[in-house]
């Protein structure tokens, strides 16, 4: 019985889950995909990359969904705005 | 000296002679005002994602050059008046990479 109590405490501690049906390791442990070693260059000409971080209605996706780091997200949003003025996106 | 990139959108209904004049005009402007053109790219006709001043398509010109802030003043003066251009954008870089071309497939 003592062992079961210990397990229950461990489950209640993981309150940082985003939803009930998600495994905590999947979402919270993810690192930034743009700050790896061979990461693609963020540039306003690289449309293929920028279109991955845009919603159906041409809005910029938040870091909660994409898990991009804070520094790279600022660069992304600046480059997306440059591409918008040229009519590429 | 700083490194810059300039992209120009010319109007769709230009003839070939008019289009070549636009390219030569801006290359001259840079070279005469203490600058130097390193590379020119011609992206060709591209579709806009939405209408820009009643146009659906446009010719794209891309220039990579070296220059001083006085060169950019002379470009902006001419580009704002120019009737053959819809829009333009100038970006400053610390280093330019001349190898990668993102629009190489469209180039004829």
Provide a compact summary of the structure.
The complex is a heterodimer of chains A (89) and B (108). By secondary structure, chain A is mainly alpha-helical. Helices cover 46% and strands 0% of the residues of chain A.
Comma- or semicolon-separated keywords:
heterodimer; A: 89 residues; mainly alpha; B: 108 residues; alpha+beta; 4-stranded antiparallel beta sheet; 4 strands; globular
Q: Outline the low-pLDDT stretches of chain A.
A: 9-14
Tell me the overall shape of chain A: globular
Strand percent estimate of chain A: under 5%
Q: Largest sheet of chain B, order of strands side by side?
A: 2-3-1-4
Going by helix content, strand content and strand pairing, the class of chain A is mainly alpha
> What helical percentage do the residues of chain B reach?
25-40%
Task: Name the average pLDDT of chain B.
Answer: 91
Figure out the total of helices of chain A.
5
Summarize the helix and strand pattern of chain A as letters.
Answer: HHHHH
Task: Report how far the terminal alpha carbons of chain B are from each other.
Answer: 33 Å
Global Rg of chain B: 14 Å
- The counted number of beta strands of chain A is 0
- Helix and strand pattern of chain B: EHEEHE
* Span of the ends, CA to CA of chain A: 60 Å
> Helical amount among residues of chain A, as a percent range?
40-55%
Number of helices of chain B: 2
Largest sheet of chain A: none
Q: What is the structural class of chain B?
A: alpha+beta
């Amino acid at each position: 019985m003592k062992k079961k109590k210990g397990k229950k405490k461990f489950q209640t501690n993981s309150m940082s889950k985003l939803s009930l049906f998600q495994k905590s390791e999947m979402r919270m442990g993810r690192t930034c995909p743009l700050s790896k070693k061979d990461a693609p260059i963020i540039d306003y000409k690289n449309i293929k990359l920028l279109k991955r971080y845009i919603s159906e209605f041409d809005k910029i996706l938040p870091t909660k969904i994409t898990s991009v780091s804070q520094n790279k997200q600022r660069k992304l949003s600046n480059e997306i705005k440059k591409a918008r003025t040229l009519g590429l996106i | 000296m700083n490194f810059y990139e300039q992209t120009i959108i010319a109007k769709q209904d230009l003839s070939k002679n008019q289009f070549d004049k636009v390219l030569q005009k801006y290359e001259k402007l840079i070279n005469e005002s203490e600058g130097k053109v390193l590379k020119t790219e011609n992206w060709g006709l591209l579709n806009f994602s939405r209408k820009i001043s009643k146009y659906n398509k446009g010719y794209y010109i891309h220039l990579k050059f070296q220059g001083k802030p006085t060169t950019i003043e002379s470009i902006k003066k001419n580009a704002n008046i120019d009737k053959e251009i819809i829009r333009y954008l100038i970006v400053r870089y610390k280093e330019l990479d001349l190898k990668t071309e993102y629009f190489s497939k469209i180039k004829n």
